[in-house]
Amino acid sequence: MARKIFIAGNWKMNKTAAEAKALCEELKASCAQFGDKVEIAVCPTFTSLTTAVEVLKGSNIKVGAQNIHWADNGAFTGEISGAMLQEIGVEYVIIGHSERRQYFGETDETVNKRIMAALKYNLKPIVCIGETLEERENGTTNAVLDKQIKGAFAGVSADDMLKITVAYEPVWAIGTGKTATPEMAQETHEFIRKTLTDLYGAEVAEKITVQYGGSMKDSNSKELTAQKDIDGGLIGGAALKADSFTALIANTL
Ligand code: PEP
After folding, report:
1. Is residue 73 part of a domain?
2. Containing structural domain, residue 199
3. 82 lines ligand 1 (CB under 6 A)
């Protein structure tokens, strides 16, 4: 069975609750045309999650958070738990984004703990991996990804792996306007699927959605998602406006 295209918008630290409400209303209308041909999610900040869930109820757009802590509750100032996200109707959660690895000390070990917490609360993790420019130029991309994959998914069962989306995001392509060429991205996606095959077997690996992220927009979403192992995108900048996000999705179909 072919994997369904999955496009998720990562709004990062953008949009007040009022702005998020307006964008969700626009997206609800503009994305209705896609029906269930594509999986769509938006990931606003914590303060807009409840609004997004309310506005998008009954639509074809799911809501995700941008982080989750591994503890159920406690003295973890600034963090949020799986129970809190589940309670308000959040479905997805982005884990291990390169900005969290770079600015907030996220490691493969903490990514793993957050994945376990998400699974415990029936949240679907979108797990980000990717190499820096230096690592790509050193020729260590595959070694870096192999370590990130094995670290992130340590102890994750094959059944749980089917609830997880992997987002391959070359760090040098995020927010820079530099996109990996479709061929370059496909080569890396193929490596990621092979690594998942070694860990979980071909039957499972063939079902796992692997998104590309890094300056994906309406002008390149078609050729990127046409690649055999690219199953959609995690979108930053182009997800902040209804017209660019909708056009990006339309071009994948
Ligand atoms: C991201 O931050 O996940 C991302 C891919 O950003 P952009 O699309 O802006 O490069």
Report:
1. no
2. 6-25+39-53+79-250
3. no
